[in-house]
Amino acid sequence: MVPIGMEEIVKAPKALLHDHLDGGLRPATIVELAAEVDHTLPTTDPGELGRWFVESADSGSLERYLETFDHTVAVMQTAASLHRVAAECALDLAADGVVYAEVRFAPEQHLERGLTLDGVVEAVLAGFAAGTEQAAAKGQQIRVGTLLTAMRHAARSQEIAELAVRYRDTGVVGFDIAGAEAGFPPTRHLDAFEYLQRENFHFTIHAGEAFGLPSIWQAIQWCGADRLGHGVRLVDDITPGGDPVLGRLSAYVRDKRIPLELCPSSNVQTGAAPSIAQHPIGLLRDLRFRVTVNTDNRLMSGTSMSREMALLVDAFGYGWSELQWFTINAMKSAFIPFDERLSIINEVIKPAYAKLA
Ligand SMILES: O=c1[nH]cnc2c1ncn2[C@@H]1O[C@H](CO)[C@@H](O)[C@H]1O
Ligand SMILES: [Zn+2]
Predict the structure, then answer these.
(1) 51 burial via Cβ count (<10 Å: 0-12, 13-18, 19+)
(2) How confident is the model at residue 357 (pLDDT cuts 50, 70, 90)?
(3) With a 6 A CB cut-off, is 149 part of the ligand 1 pocket?
(4) Residue 2: pLDDT above 80?
């Protein structure tokens, strides 16, 4: 079998469920926006700045990895800058062959220059719409859904959950919590999750990245998460060997087909996995968990959806059938309505992979 090349992977349709808006800016855009607001960057050379983000995020610790977001969040404090960053995000994902993306960000982090929560959300939604339209004009079809994130160390999750529900018919498709995981269990935000369940709304929870099984267990069994952001530490509940044995929690996650939003490069940078080749995605796929492949933060990892796929092809020898499986898993797990998911699977994904294979 001829190994699959990067160019072909870019052309293949891909679905992305876990991508942070403030973790995916173009370095050149950060430089321009920083000059407008007098924000001091480590360097104003876009190439060097891109490398600075990757090297700084390569820290082995989630807390230190998250410090790099100070520079991206600082330049995303006006409606115009949020609009631009969101439009470029849609354009960049579409150019990479992503046909469906859920992009998340935390509105509460963008209020430093007078915007309201609603103002932040409206600027981002308008930016995604503009970028989607520009991509379509170039012949690149993408659909972008927005997830609103609440920061887990803060106390605004109920407010952000209500904000998400308010915009559910105009582009917001789900809710999430993010930020440092150790010391900030999901149950701190139980009120918000119970509210969302009563509203029949969708949410994912960052869990099982920098903290292990208790975090995953709470996210699912206390909070009712539809999906797990990362969830990579679920392997702590699997006894490896010729015939791996699943514990109660990992068996539950697999039986219920709870999607795992795995982010290989990001996990290596924060120390959640030793390398791509040793990333638990290999085992989890073999065991048929509902595995999806994601970018997390394209800027901090110097990556793209196609690059993450290519890394897995290199490390695990995956072919088109595995790449299609990841893509369909993601599409099945999306927060948009079932009929819309199905039409992307049947009309876009399957015909394209049939030609590739
Ligand atoms: O992998 C991650 N784990 C936990 N939190 C994260 C990760 N990536 C980004 N953020 C946090 O989410 C916020 C909103 O997008 C970012 O500002 C960052 O603090
Ligand atoms: Zn994340």
Answers:
(1) middle
(2) confident
(3) yes
(4) no
Q: How confident is the model at residue 304 (pLDDT cuts 50, 70, 90)?
A: very high
- Residue 202, annotated ligand binder? no
Ion ligand 2 contact residues with beta carbon within 5 A: 296
Residue 339 assigned to a binding site: no
Provide the ipTM: 0.99
Catalytic (active site) residue 209: yes
Domain residue ranges in the chain: 6-356
Question: Which of 66, 267, 269 is the pocket-test mutation for ligand 1 (most atoms within 8 Å of CB)?
Answer: 66
- Looking at domain 6-356, its CATH class is alpha beta
pLDDT at residue 320 is higher than 90: yes
Query: What is the Cα–Cα distance from 230 to 97, expressed in whole angstroms?
Result: 22
- Mark 266-298 as b/e (b = at least 16 C-beta within 10 Å): bbbbbbbbeebeebbbbbbbeeebbbbbbbbbb
Indicate yes or no: pTM above 0.90.
yes
Q: Ligand 1, closest atom to CA 105? A: 15
Please give the distance, rounded to the nearest whole angstrom, from the Cα atom of residue 98 to the centre of ligand 2: 18
Residue 319 annotated as binding? no
Model pLDDT, residue 1: 61
